[in-house]
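Tutorial, part two.
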Amino acid sequence: MRKYKELPYTHLRKIYNPKHFSFKTTAEIKSVEGIVGQERAVKAMEFGLRVKNSRYNIFLAGLKGTGKTSYAQKVVAEQAKTENVPDDWCYVYNFDNPGRPIAVNMPPGMGKIFCEDMDELVQDLLIEIPKAFSGDDYERRKNEIIKEYQEDKNRLLDELTEYSKKNGFLMKNTSTGFAFAPLIEGEIISDDQYDDLEEEQRNEIERKAEEVQIKAAELVRKLKGLERKAKRKVIELGNMIGLFVVKPVIDEMLDKYRKYDKVTEYLRKVQEDVIEKIYDFDIEEGEEVIVVKKTESSFTKKYKVNLFVDNSNASGAPVIVEFNPNFSNLFGKVEYENEQGTLKTDFTMIKPGAIHKANGGYLIIQANRVLSNLQAWDTLKRTLETGEVGIESLRTQLGIVDIESLRPEPMPVHIKAILIGNSHLYHLLYTHDEDFEKLFKIKVDFDSVMEVNVENEGRIVQFIGSYCEREGLRHLDPAGVAKVLEYNHRFAGTQKKFSIRFNKIIDILIEADTWAELDSSPIITERHVKKAFSERVYRNSKLEEKIEESYKNGKIIMDVIDRRIGRINGLSVIDVGDHVFGKLSVITATTYAGNKGIVNIEREAEMSGSIHDKGVMILEGYLSELLAQEHPLSLTAKICFEQSYGGVDGDSASSTELYALLSSLSEIPLKQSIAVTGSVNQKGEIQPVGGVTEKIEGFFSICNFYGLTGQQGVIIPYQNINDLVLCDEVIIAVRSGKFHIYPVENIEEGMEILTDKPFRLVYNAVKGKLEQYISKSKDKSGESSEDSKSNKRR
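Running the prediction step on this input gives:
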């Protein structure tokens, strides 16, 4: 039997010797500082945080589990501590336009004080104003005004009474005004007596009655004027008393807040409004108690302050992480309350969003979440571009008729937005959103792997120890750590790289800790790590087992023992998200005389992807250069993935298909005990593919079920040698010579392994078969030509 180059068991997985570690458990290891294996990302992040420009926002791109979110929170929090605390923001009542509350900012901590000062001002006014109006001086001066009014009123009434008498009428006050009764010789006459008077006398009485009415109307006008004058004097007195009470308090606050123009302007408006509404502060006098008639909500609520953003307890710039970046959570909202079936609101019910809270600092959000929330992404971009944020309902944004609401004054914002997402999403936004590149100029690109070296190995061990310590898990012994490192290479898919998708390591640690607990072990050992990994695979491998059952019970026709012409076992990978496994695919090729070239049955049935189609076309290029230098490649070949019903894509089976074609043409059988993966180029060189570990393990599982004969194995591209991270069962089988892994560089090597014959022999057989096809084609062409001549002669 010919000997072929094959891999020793020592090359099938990166092995770590527990004796290499000097610790007894990971509890002895120093905690890791910073993020592991992301030097490029760290430099980009540091630079992005230093650039103070509204367009230099940051996008953290990378696979899930690489630590983007936790790193962003940590590094941004550290940066924020070195920066200034931003201003407080308040909303106050707008006396000129109540529907548009005014935004007021002041240094951190002052907003809370201002809010308390205004509450104290209201309470003082509620007490001091009624006191002032109940004082003796106010009553005396008010009574003087009233007395003066009464005296003037009485004088005018006396004048009207005297005038009426002179004209023969008696004046009476009634509920509706003045009434006048005619007099004759000083006596009031009745209606009957009036009717008995001479017509001339009645006309005289009516003339004088008209004069008296005119005089009375003039008197009423004067009385109204006196009343208005008296009321005005009372109001002026009230305003003066109110000003006497309010001005000192307001002046004190004006002095306290004189540096803040909008606050002082607001306070002056408060003073004007309090004096104007001074009589709303009405009272009832008890023995020694003053009871305020008006409730606070009815007329003093407008003097309150809505402390919108309070930074009084902050140390450094704010860092806001919004996990649910919908429109309201980002940009604030105006709340409503139901009052007797009617929705009502006011400026005290304006609530801030994450943008307002992050003003002057940093906002961290998941990119996919903000993009999936209606209007949130567009409004975020507009906010970053304009440096201003308003508070509007989503209905208003969409142009839907909304209930009447407040429109608070927009606030200027200065934030650095930090989006977290995957690289695919970053490129989609960069390509299709013209605003994205303009606003997010810093890309922090997280890698998923890092180089294998002593330093990085130590950092992963440090991470294991620090995570166990931080989360209260059992610590690992050296053998447990060695096994975690081995599995880490499986996560990375190569022996030459460490995976830095730490969520996968964390999953193993948590589950291994649970198995250690069930085992009553104080530490996590190698057995617990292996148990955690194997149980995790078992939980997620139902589909793999179902497919394997189809092979084992004969529903999928396959052979792992004999030799067959034009038939070969190819390998593919199925990724169902939480589990990846290899799948055996039986590939057949048939060849015969013709000129259609290589026909891809999967493509003809519209079950083939473009990459697979390309791989099949490459086969024709290889055969043409190898065999069609003197004559055209005259053949028809058909390639099929047998019992494949879900579609085929990828080029990892292109070398497998070529082996089947060469076997069919040469009529030399191929070993069914050898499965193949690897793509090929037009020069016959084997190219690397993905998923070699899972493919090998998938084929090994089937061979193991039927019984290992010592002849089974897998052909892989030699470039994939370092990508092997095989399980113990495969390694044991290779070590004992029951299973083989052959790395090849070209089609010639692979064909010799599959046939146990020199490639020159295969080549000659193929060439001979093609010459037969050409000869038959010429004969047929000649016969057709003779038939044509015969027809012409006829």
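The two ends are 65 Å apart (CA to CA). In part three we will examine how such features are distributed along the chain.
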